[in-house]
Structure formats: structure tokens, C-alpha cells
Amino acid sequence: MDFKQHITDKLAELTGLEKSVIENSVETPPDEKLGDLAFPCFPLARVMRKAPPLIAKEIAEKFGQDEALDRVEAVGGYLNFFFNRALFAQTAIDAIAEADDKWGSSDKGGGKTVLVEYSSPNIAKPFHIGHLFSTAIGNSLARIYKHLGYSVQSLNHLGDWGTQFGKLISAYKRWGDKDVIDKDPINELLKIYVKFHEEAEKHPELEDEARDYFKKLEDGDEETTALWKHFRDISLAEFNRVYDMLGISFDSYNGEAFYSDKMDEVVEILSEKGLLTESDGAQVVDLSDLNIPPCIILKSDGATIYATRDIAAALYRYRTYDFYKNIYVVGIPQSLHFKQIFEVMKRAGWEWSEGCEFVGFGLVKFPGKAMSTRHGDVVFLEDVLNEAVEKTRAIVEQNANVKDDKDAVAKKIGIGAVLYTFLKNSREKDIIFSWDAMLDFEGESGPYCQYGYARGRSILRRASDIDYSNADMSKAMTDEEYALIKQLYAFGNAVEGAAEKNEPFYVNRYVTNLVKSFNKFYSVCPILRDDVDLETKKARLAIVDATTRVIKTALYLLGIDTVESM
Predict the structure, then answer these.
(1) Which of 182, 371, 374, 387 is buried deepest, with most CB atoms within 10 A?
(2) CB 535 within 8 A of CB 475
(3) CB atoms within 10 A of CB 315
């Protein structure tokens, strides 16, 4: 039984209001003493020409006996609904056990495709810690949308085109050693890239040489194209090692280069629609009516830029996927760029552009350290992940409770701790990197949530001889038990909220609070103690089982693995 739906249907029958209106008005009271759900009667005052408190009182009386409800109270202008606790608990626990890892899922997205573009590192440059923000958010959103029934495509829009490749080819031709670079591609390519910028400050003519090399690349010159492809291949091999550590894969690695032959059509379409105007020799779309800078489509030398490529990419994606949403997980500094290209697509008459969404995120800050690839000041993501695993390994070594492969456990906890940190708050909030906070097993952290799961699994292993599959949930009616069951039941709301706002932290906050409630339940409600009767043990074990299922699913949606012992 869906208790909210049951109340909505009954209210619609008694008031004549549309169900959609009631669904949007039914709310969870701020205090549990005020019931499980509440309905404000104020909107009915104008229709029924009565004071809200009187309306609430009359409707409460009409509800009469209802097996789903313990009682209905009129308080002020509100109707407060108190569920039949035993029925609610039985319904929730049985439903979670049946659904397992599909709990909180829906078919809401049936028949709709969502594209999530994320990570998108630059070829031949370090996969640094800043890239994890986009990677963690995008991977989580892809999993969340899949959980809601959408067909999801994960896109890695690689930075594999542009004048920086002219600089890299110039640097390689001058100082590169293929054997050395192939052994440690990203580090060695970074070294010669940094050296190019150092030398170009003393010899500006190197910039012209770099532009010439990129022009050769654009023209399909055999030697420069072969070098570019080699740089791309060895970079992808390095990136995929990190993606494997994170348990992430992509459906497409089409980068900027893929769209280089698709931009002429965009220029033609915008020109035919009369959207292009000349500005200092460049072809632009004037957006002054929105008080934002013009969107440059062609530079004064006739070259295309990021905007042209992104518009070409969006058009290609619509034709290929017929998407419902096309989500870009990109840093907040790019918000103006996306505002411009979305507006250009809208003015081109492409109605599908309404499905394009910019999902911005903040910065990763290290106290006293700034990152710059031009000068070689960068924190490699792989180094951070390895260090997190090493630090966790030292902790795990001292824990006699860990029965599984300690290397595997350390990897899951260490990487989970990093991912949790990047999804802990609203994505627009900057992250101050701190090992102490990240690996805190007591506070709000990945290890804290993983420990909650491991604790539950440990209890279930110790009770392996008890069959709780048909537990009578009326035996578990304390406030702590009921509060935990209500929280478990509400998981789907957190998942839908995360998708609606493109904010994985909704799920992060949910699972953290769930573990807190579980720990409170564990401390107040003895489970396997000798003085607890068998039926109560069964009911409480069923709650533990449901809790571990939901924790595991929630952490999965964040990209975090669980461990069986900690």
C-alpha cells in the first residue's frame, strides 16, 4: 500500500480537489508528534467559504475508520494523519525485501533518454584532482537517472583538439623522446608542455610555430595527425586506469576532434536564419538584449571556437539520441559559455535545446596551493586515490574485525572516502581538501556510512540461524524502530529530489542520516540479546536487513562500494 497515495485518493474524494493539487500540498510535518503526513486546508477556504480550522475538523470526521490510519487530527488549519504503525512497518519492510537493490527506483523515465557529459579531461594533460568533481557528480547522476528508469548515455567529451596540440607537437619535435614518453606518458608530456611555455616567454616566435603545427593538423597532415593520435591513445590508456579505480565507464569518448567536420553545417544554419552579424571581423550571434556578450561562431581569421563545436555536438547528439535531457557537468566558470550556446540554439528554432542543462560545480582547493598545468603545479588524481588507499590500509591493518581481503577493503573505503567528500555538499560549494575529514570513521564521511552497512551485515551473520523472512513487524513498534522504517520508506523521495535538482548530495545526505538513525536504533533496541524474545528479534533483524539493502543501494548511486566487515 502507498500510504501517501491512499490519503491523496481519500482527500480527493472528500474535497473534490484534483489529485495533483493534493499531492503537491501533502507534506511531512516538522515534528513527528504532528503525525506522519499533513494537509493544509487553507486553499479550500475560498472554495468552501469556511475557516480552515473548521474545514479541517469536518474532513477529519468524514475520514471515519480507516485501516491504514491510526487517527486523523485537525490542528488549526491542518489535517494531521497518523499511520497505522504496524501496517506501515509491515508494508515497508516487505516491499524493501522484495525490491532489494531496486528499492527507490521507478519507471518515471521510461522511453526517455538522458545524456550526461562529464569528466572530459584534456588529452596529454594530467588527470588532476579537479577533474574528480565533474567525474563524481556525472557518474552519480548517470546512476540516479538509470535508477529512475531513464535510458542513460555517459559521454566523455575529451579535450582533444585546439591550438594546445600545436604547442605539444612543437614541444615533442624539439625535446620529446618517444621511449621515455611511452613509459610515463602524462608526466613526460606535461614536462615538455611546461617547457614550451617557459621557452615561448623568451622566444615568442614559438607561438607561431605552434599555430602552424595545428593548422597542419586541421589540414590532415599525415605526420602531425599520427602524433596527435598517438598522444590521444596513450592518454586514454592512462585515464582508463583511473576510471577503473573509480569503477566508471563511458558509452562515448567522442571529443572535440570528432565534431571538427560538423561545424560548417552549424555556421550555414545560423547564417541562413540570419543570426550571424559581423563584429571586428568575427561572425557572432548578438545577445545584447540579454545583457550578455555575443557568442562568437567564427573568429576573424575564419577559425571556429568552442561554441561552434559545442553547438555542433548538441545537434549531433539530438539527431543520434533524440534526448529528453542533455546534461553538461562542467565547472561554474563555464556558465556564461553555456548560457550563450543554449540561447543561440533556442534562436535557431531548435525546440529540443530546452532539454540542454548546465550542471555547474565549484572548485577544489588545497590550503596554500594553486593548480596550473602551464607551470606544472598540479595534484594528480591517481596520486590522491592511491594515497587514500594507503592511508586507509594503515587503519585497516589495525582492525581485527576486517575478515575480507584487506587490500580490497582498503581500496573500497579509501576511494569511497574521496568520492563521498566530493558529493557531500551542494555541487556549487567549493571543496577544501582535508585528509582528516575525509577518512574520519566517526563523523559524516564515506567510512562512517560504509561502517553502518558493515555493522548491519555483521549482525545478520551472527543471526544466520534465525529465519526472519516472515517477521511480524508489530513486534517492532518503538519510536526508534518506527523512525528508521519511515526513513527507509522515503528513499525514493531522495532519489527523485537528486534527479530533479541534479544534486547527488540529496542521496549523500539521505544515506548519512539513515546511518545515524540506524546507529540510534542499534544503541536503543537490543537485537540478539538473550532477554529479547524470538519474535522481536525477527522483527529487528528484518529492519537491519532492510537498512543494509538501502544503504548499499544509496552508496552505489554515489559510486561508492560497500564492504562486509570493518
Answers:
(1) 371
(2) yes
(3) 21
User: How much is the pTM?
Assistant: 0.93
Q: What is the pLDDT of residue 213?
A: 93
Query: Is residue 53 within a helix (H) or strand (E), and if so which, with residue range?
Result: helix 52-63
Strands 113-117 and 151-155: parallel
113-260+311-365 has CATH 3.40.50.620 classification? yes
Three-state SS string over 146-212 comes to HHCCCEEEEECCCECCCHHHHHHHHHHHHHCCHHHHHHCHHHHHHHHHHHHHHHHHHCCHHHHHHHH
368 pLDDT band, cuts 50/70/90, is: low
pLDDT given for residue 371 in this prediction = 47
Please give the pLDDT value at position 436: 82
d(CA 219, CA 205): 21
Homologous superfamily of the 391-557 domain (CATH): Isoleucyl-tRNA Synthetase; Domain 1 (1.10.730.10)
> Which run of H or E residues covers position 219?
none
Is residue 399 pLDDT above 80, yes or no?
Answer: no
CA atoms within 13 A on the CB side of 365: 9
Mean pLDDT for the stretch of residues 482-486: 97
What does the block give as the cell for 75? Answer: 490542528
Q: Cα separation of 190 and 158, whole Å?
A: 17
Characterize the bridge pairing of strands 325-331 and 113-117: parallel
Query: Which of 307, 303, 290, 293 has its CA nearest to residue 341?
Result: 307
Q: Which residues participate in catalysis according to the annotation?
A: 125, 128, 131
CB atoms within 10 A of CB 416: 24
CA distances from residue 198 to 173, 193, 245, 401 in whole angstroms, order as listed: 16, 9, 34, 53
Q: 514 with 494: CB under 8 angstroms? A: no
Helices (runs of H) and strands (runs of E) counted in the chain: 22, 12
**DSSP letter assigned to residue 287:** -
For residue 377, name the pLDDT band (cuts at 50, 70, 90): low
Task: Give Rg (Cα) of the chain.
Answer: 28
d(CA 514, CA 555): 11
Kind of pairing, strands 295-298 and 282-285? antiparallel
Smallest CA-to-CA distance from 311 within 292, 329, 324, 298 is with 298
- What is residue 366's DSSP assignment? B
pLDDT at 129: 87
At the top level of CATH, the class of 3-83 is alpha beta
Task: Tell me the C-alpha distance between 351 and 374, whole Å.
Answer: 40
Segment 325-341 mean pLDDT: 97
Question: What is the C-alpha to C-alpha distance for residues 510 and 515, in angstroms, rounded to an integer?
Answer: 9
What whole-number distance in Å separates Cα of residue 420 and Cα of residue 505?
9
Residue type (1 letter), 228: W
DSSP 128: B
C-alpha neighbours within 13 Å on the C-beta side of residue 301? 4
Whether residue 149 is predicted with pLDDT greater than 90 in this model: the reply is yes
Q: pLDDT > 70: what percent of the chain?
A: 98
> Could you tell me the residue ranges of all domains in the chain?
3-83, 113-260+311-365, 391-557
**Cα angle vertex 445, ends 565, 400, to 5°?**
25
